[in-house]
Amino acid sequence: MSAAVAPADVPEEPKAEDKCGPPEVAQAQKRTVRTSVRGHTAASLKTREENSMRNMLVVVSNRLRPVGDSAYFKNALVVCLMFALFGGGFFVLTNAPDDPGILVLDTLMGLVTLLFILEMILNSLIDFANYPLSFFFWMDALGTVSMI
Q1: Under a CB-based contact definition with an 8 Å cutoff, are residues 110 and 102 in contact?
Q2: 37 strand-pairing partners
């Protein structure tokens, strides 16, 4: 009743009856066993890495979601959008002097552009399953690039 049980972490060598076909197949089977780490083949390790990456993205998403959903962040983006749309015209209408006016306008537009890029990165991390390469992503990218 003392049957030897192989530990779960050690992969089993393929048996002679399992090796069928040309010698290349048998060598490939041996290579698969040799490249295993603690009983996991390379394919299962890749799946584990993908799962750990996905779990990390979920953790990051859960931590950043309150920032993206906050009223302060959304209101700041609306103010930046209004400034990006009407700021240049406002400087022309108020007849601001060119010497400090252009520098101030360019600095503010640069900050708005950086905030829009930050929003795209934040949305990509928060909604990593749907936002990247979606319609809204490309609209945000087009609007941000148009500011340059």
Answers
A1: no
A2: 40
Specify whether the CB–CB gap between 68 and 125 falls below 8 A: no
pTM, 2 dp: 0.64
* pLDDT score of 36: 46
Tokens 């101030």 map to which residue? 104
pLDDT in tens, 87-130: 999 999 998 888 888 999 999 999 999 999 999 999 999 998 89
Which residues, 6+ apart, have CB-to-CB distance to 105 below 8 Å? 87, 88, 91, 96
User: What one-letter code names the amino acid at 56?
Assistant: M
Q: Which among 55, 54, 32 is positioned nearest to 43, based on CA atoms?
A: 32
Contact 144, 115 (CB under 8 A): no
Rounded to 5 degrees, what angle do the CA atoms 126, 131, 135 make? 155
**Residue 15 and residue 33 in contact, taking contact as beta carbons nearer than 8 Å:** no
